[in-house]
Design brief:
CATH topology: Rossmann fold
Structural class: alpha/beta
Largest sheet: 7 strands, mixed
Number of helices: 8
CATH class: Alpha Beta
CATH superfamily: Vaccinia Virus protein VP39
Shape: globular
CATH architecture: 3-Layer(aba) Sandwich
Radius of gyration: 16 Å
Strand order of the largest sheet: 3-2-1-4-5-7-6
C-alpha cells in the first residue's frame, strides 16, 4: 500500500462508514484521497460544498473535517438507503443536522436547481457517464477560486494505456483533456486513491 494511504488515519466512525460501503459493494475514496479532500476544503476555507455521490458518508466525513465550522455540505445521491446510512454516520461523527443538506435524486436533475457562483468546492464521485455534465455544471456553480475535484481520474489504472479504448476510459480522457485545454481552470491530477482531478476556477 502506498505510504500516502497509510499516512492518512481514520477514526472509528470513518472505519464504520467504509465497512458499510464494502458490505453494499460501494466504492469509496481511499484514506489518502480522503485526506486530500479534507486538505483542499481547509485550504479554501470552504463553507458551501457540493458532493455528487453520498455513498455511506466516507467522503462526506472527510470534506466536513476540512470545512469551516459553519459550513454546509450539500450531498446528492439517487439511493435513499445509502443516504439514510450516511445521515447516521454524520450524526455519529458529531455533525449537527444543519451541517448537511442531503438531497435524493439524480445529480443531473438536482444541479440545475442550485445557485450560480454559490459554492466553494464541488466533489464529483459519480458514474463516468456524468463526468462531462457535472464538470460543466461546476463551472456555473463555483465561485471564482472555487475548486472542482473529480474522483476516478486514473480510469481504474487504464488512463495511460493507449490500447485502453473502453467507453469509461475514453470518457475520462475526454474530461481530462477538456479541463486541461480550457482557459477557465487551473488543474492538476493528484495520484491518490483512484486518482483525483483537481481544478481551480479562474
Amino acid at each position: 500500500m502506498p505510504f500516502a494511504e497509510t499516512y492518512a488515519t481514520e477514526d472509528t466512525v470513518l472505519q464504520t462508514a467504509r465497512a458499510l460501503a464494502h458490505e453494499l459493494g460501494l466504492p469509496c475514496v481511499s484514506p489518502g484521497a480522503g485526506s486530500v479532500l479534507r486538505l483542499l476544503a481547509a485550504a479554501g476555507s470552504a463553507k458551501a460544498v457540493v458532493e455528487i455521490g453520498t455513498g455511506t458518508g466516507v467522503s462526506g466525513i472527510w470534506l466536513l473535517g476540512g470545512m469551516r465550522p459553519d459550513g454546509v455540505l450539500t450531498t446528492i445521491d439517487v439511493e435513499h438507503e445509502h443516504q439514510r446510512i450516511a445521515r447516521r454516520i454524520f450524526q455519529e461523527a458529531g455533525y449537527a443536522p444543519s451541517r448537511t443538506r442531503i438531497i435524493s435524486g439524480r445529480a443531473l436533475n438536482v444541479l440545475p436547481r442550485l445557485a450560480d457562483g454559490a459554492y466553494d468546492l464541488i466533489f464529483v464521485d459519480a458514474d463516468t457517464t456524468e463526468f462531462a455534465a457535472c464538470t460543466e455544471a461546476a463551472q456555473r456553480l463555483l465561485r471564482p477560486g472555487g475548486v472542482l475535484i473529480v474522483n476516478g481520474a486514473h480510469a481504474n489504472g487504464r488512463i495511460s494505456d493507449p490500447s485502453a479504448r473502453d467507453v469509461d476510459t475514453l470518457t475520462v480522457r475526454e474530461m481530462l483533456k477538456a479541463i486541461r485545454e480550457s482557459d477557465e481552470w487551473i488543474q492538476a491530477v493528484i495520484p491518490s486513491g483512484a486518482g483525483l482531478l483537481a481544478a481551480v476556477k479562474c
